[in-house]
Each structure stands twice: as structure tokens, then as C-alpha cells.
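Sanity check

After download, print the first record. It should look like this:
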Amino acid sequence: MSIRLPVLRDGDVGVRPLARSDEAEWLQLRRENAEWLKPWEATTPPGVPHDSMTFASFVRQERRAWKKGQAFAGVIMVGERIVGRVSIGGIRWGAERGGSLGYWIAQSHARRGITSRAVKLMIDYGFAQGLHRIEIAVQPHNEASLALVAKLGFRPEGLRESYLFIDGGWRDHLVFARTVD
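Expected C-alpha cells:
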């Protein structure tokens, strides 16, 4: 039996799973936004082997995780153009029923309300699938993300010191959460 993965929509903004046919557009978007994303995006620390994979393997891994309920990851679309990514990863079912939210948007589309619309689509989807709690970790100086979590009703929960390796160092993050209720 084949499970059909969703396409989420809010007017001209959409979220859908990454497809093999997206490779050229995805790689170009990542190249164009490498410096823009560098201060915010987690990377593998030095001395730790980096898991390199082909684009096709990356797509298969994401689709498998979505079908198994381990992660919901998609590209953010404006019309038919890919402009970013949003995901709920690290999903834990059982007693917790929670996951961690992540996202990024191309510099050319930042501060236009697209990210908050796409993130809301993914949050609503996650809750509709049975998640009870979604959390997000934000660097304390990331003003755009702090505004987004406030706008979407996330509550502050505290500080995780040296939480993720980003831009050459271990960075502190403020943690926020929302529950379905």
C-alpha cells in the first residue's frame, strides 16, 4: 500500500515533501543562501564524520521518515517556486507525542509573512496527525524567529546552553513550546 504524502496550502504559500525532480532548484537555492543561513543552521562539529549522501538518498530518507511518522519535512513553496524548508523532526510518540520544529527561508523571501504561514501549516498538520507538543529552539539574538514564535503562540520554557553546533561553535538556544490544547 502506498501512502500519499500531503501538500499543505495557504493561498499562494504551500508546503510539500521534497521530490527528486527538485534537485537543481534545491541545490541552487542552497548555494544562493549559504551565507544567509550560516549563522543559524546547525552543522556537524569538527572531527565528527559527516554523513554525505546523494540528493536522491536524501529525498528517499525524508519520505521514509514521513511515512513512518518519524519526521514531517517539506519545502516551502510560493506558487511553484521553492523558497525554504520547514520540518517537525525527532518525533517521539508514546506518552510524549512531540517533535521539534525547524525552518529556514531564502533571503529573497524573508520578512514577508511566508515563513509564519508555512510554519503554521506544518504545526496544524502535526497536531492533526496526533502530536500533542511541538517545541522549537531559537538562538537568543535571532529576532525574526523570536517574533515568529511569539506570533504563533509558543510559550517560553528556558535556556539550553551550548545546545547546537552552528557557525563554528556551540550556541545557546531559548526553548519554546506549543501544545495542541
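If your output differs, re-run the checksum step. Summary of this record's structure: The longest helix spans residues 114-128.
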